[in-house]
Amino acid sequence: xxxxxxxxxxxxxxxxxxxxxxxxxxxxxxxxxxxxxxxxxxxxxxxxxxxxxxxxxxxxxxxxxxxxxxxxxxxxxxxxxxxxxxxxxxxxxxxxxxxxxxxxxxxxxxxxxxxxxxxxxxxxxxxxxxxxxxxxxxxxxxxxxxxxxxxxxxxxxxxxxxxxxxxxxxxxxxxxx
Length: 177
Known about the structure:
By secondary structure, the protein is mainly beta. The chain has helices spanning 59-68, 79-86; strands spanning 8-15, 40-43, 46-53, 71-73, 95-102, 106-108, 136-141, 147-151, 162-164, 166-168. The chain has one domain (8-168): Mannose-Binding Protein A, subunit A (Mannose-Binding Protein A, Chain A, Roll), CATH 3.10.100.10. It holds the Pfam family Lectin_C. InterPro entries: C-type_lectin-like (IPR001304), C-type_lectin-like/link_sf (IPR016186), C-type_lectin/snaclec_domain (IPR050111), CTDL_fold (IPR016187).
């Protein structure tokens, strides 16, 4: 007998201004010292957070969650960044909402340039699914790192869960040890 439990993983990213580089991760930070908070993972100038809950989240709900922690859905600008995210524990098996959305055209929620693209073959396709409200105007990242446009209100499917990746709106300095 199986019990269906839906998990949603949110991956938040906090923007940091680089003052110095360090090959070792910093110790557990306080909120205002320029280091990642507990349970956040430092990569480059950003801190990432994986939220693993038992409830599925839509793209707007995910973005709202990130904004409540002074972050936003993440923009991805390189293959290295995608590979780092792919190797985070929960993103190996779950889809992740990212900050790419289509209003008049595709763009990042943080306003950064759309230079790096990593669409899955045949995407974006802006499909409309009968019985659903709206088109595929939000983007999820598959466990393989490829992107798919999806309905923003989707909260997760039976065999896959939707997560979130986010980036801060207030830069702070990184302290090196």
